[in-house]
Amino acid sequence: MEFPEMMNKQFMTLAFLCVATITAVIGADAETKKVLKHFQFARGSITFYDNHEWENIRNGSRNSGRWEWLGNTHVCPVEWKNPKQQAHCRKYYRVK
Predict the structure, then answer these.
(1) What value does the mean pLDDT take over residues 8-21?
(2) Most-buried pick from 40, 54, 68, 79 (CB within 10 A)?
(3) Sheet of 61-70, strands arranged across
């Protein structure tokens, strides 16, 4: 086996291992991140996951962060401490 052939096979093996590793990591993340509740609105959507993360897509931009319970039935982003923002959560983000 000539040197260039050997290097090509090593490169292909390394590339395969990288792809397999990335696929395993993405698959593991998808298994641990389950949708708690998804809300669809006219200008976007927000999804709350059971691992206390949220993701919002509105007008083509994406935001994300952590969420917490407001009482027993509503969820709200942790950053939203203002009473007006929490009232918004109580109005729109009922989970149970």
Answers:
(1) 54
(2) 54
(3) 35-41, 44-49, 53-58, 61-70, 74-77
d(CA 58, CA 42): 9
Q: What six digits make up the tokens of 44?
A: 């976007």
Per the CB < 8 A criterion, the answer to whether 72 and 95 are in contact is no
Domain ranges of the chain: 1-32, 33-92
C-beta of residue 55 within 8 angstroms of C-beta of residue 63: yes
Q: Domain 33-92 is of which CATH architecture?
A: Beta Barrel (2.40)
For the stretch 32-59, pLDDT in tens is 789 999 999 999 999 999 999 999 999 9
